[in-house]
Amino acid sequence: MERLNQSSSLTCENLPSFLSSFVDTFVDFSVSGLFLPQQQQIPQQPLQTQYPSPNRLVAIGDLHGDLEKSKQAFRLAGLIDGSDRWCGGSTTVVQIGDVLDRGGEELKILYFLEKLKREAVKSGGQLITLNGNHEIMNIEGDFRYVTKKALEEFDVWAYWYDIGNKMKSLCHGLEIPKNPFHGIPPSFHRVPEEFSHSIRARIAALRPDGPISRRFLANNLTVLVVGDSVFVHGGLLEKHVDYGLQRINDEVRDWINGSMGQRAPEYCRGRNAVVWLRKFSDEFAKNCDCSLLEHVLATIPGAKRMIMGHTIQEIGINGACDNRAIRIDVGMSKGCINGLPEVLEIDRNSGLRVLTSNPMYQNKNQYAQTKEGLGLLIPEHGPKQVEVKA
Predict the structure, then answer these.
(1) Cα(147)–Cα(247) distance, rounded to whole angstroms?
(2) What pTM value is reported for the model?
(3) 134 is catalytic
(4) How far is CA 45 from each of CA 48, 77, 241, 255, rounded to the nearest angstrom?
(5) Can you give the residue ranges of the Calcineurin-like phosphoesterase domain (predicted)?
(6) Nearest by Cα to 224 from 213, 212, 208, 236
């Protein structure tokens, strides 16, 4: 902690610069296998890619390291109570990815979501989390968007994780814990020495087969179908559907668990990747490739809409392509645009509606109110707002 607080060379302005240069160093080492812990082949059961349509479905966008905004979003949908315990009953919730980066409470959010998953199951509900491009980036060692506070959080994690391992090693009969720092160099080119430990801690935690990536990210889905809604962080192309949605989920899980090398599968890298695509998320509806979207949805049996995060929608949650493309990233994190939290609700009886914390749409008796036609623009000039049904 003191190493970070006493730094004179690291500022909010130059942090992304030296972390960007670090990426090249990381890739050089990872290609040689130096950063990879010893791989273990463990048979895995296929992840569940398709779920039936629930009575109530809630979708929550990118969280980016902002714990309080994350909790506000869950409260908007009536999913947690004043003590942050699950009270959503049998609701199915989908968090669209991008928990990591831009904020300093990434681990706190990961633990918070894990706690809610367990509580939801006990009430007949479920919380499903997806991988976003920032999860993929961090597992690969791309830390360009990490914050100083986030480095501190992982520094503290490494301290207590090391203490836990030392305590385990004192117990006779227990397997000697693996050293999470095995294979990671003590320093990096162009990274200030005082931050080497923090960078090493983040690598150790998040690399393939790292303790945090294995525990919290490996069982995330990358593509999800719930009823007639397709969820993906960036977007899907026909080639992704042809490759196989189940296959994508299982392969990404295997990669995060450390059995497929350091680099992510090809369909997770590049502008047309499932976690990076923006063809259906442009702020101007006329720039969205609606014919392509229609064709992709037609290849997924029963699919009526694609629900995506990744691209910040400054006007709030909205729809394009006759509401076949629903965009739910409102940039709520203080590390983004500090947007007002909003969530998408899909009710089996009443259809789609947006719940917002925008005071323009609240009354004295309700914390969350639905938006009635907010930002309804001519499709040629801007996005079309999701229709709200009473």
Answers:
(1) 33
(2) 0.85
(3) yes
(4) 9, 32, 21, 14
(5) 56-311
(6) 236
Residue 356 and residue 316 in contact, taking contact as beta carbons nearer than 8 Å:
yes
* pLDDT for the residue 10: 45
Domains located in the chain, CATH noted: 42-145+213-356 (3.60.21.10)
Catalytic residue among 134, 197, 233, 310: 134
Q: Is pLDDT above 70 for 326? A: yes
pLDDT score of 85? 98
Take residue 228 and report the two structure tokens written for it.
């007639």
> Given strand 56-60, what is the order of strands in its sheet?
126-129, 92-95, 56-60, 342-347, 351-356, 369-370
Give the residues across from 308 on adjacent strands: 232, 327
The CA-based angle 293-62-341, given to 5 degrees, is 110
Residue the block writes with tokens 């509580």? 119
The residue type at 75: R
Q: Which two tokens stand for residue 147?
A: 């914050």
Q: 100-149: per-residue pLDDT in tens?
A: 999 999 999 999 999 999 999 999 999 999 999 999 999 999 999 999 99
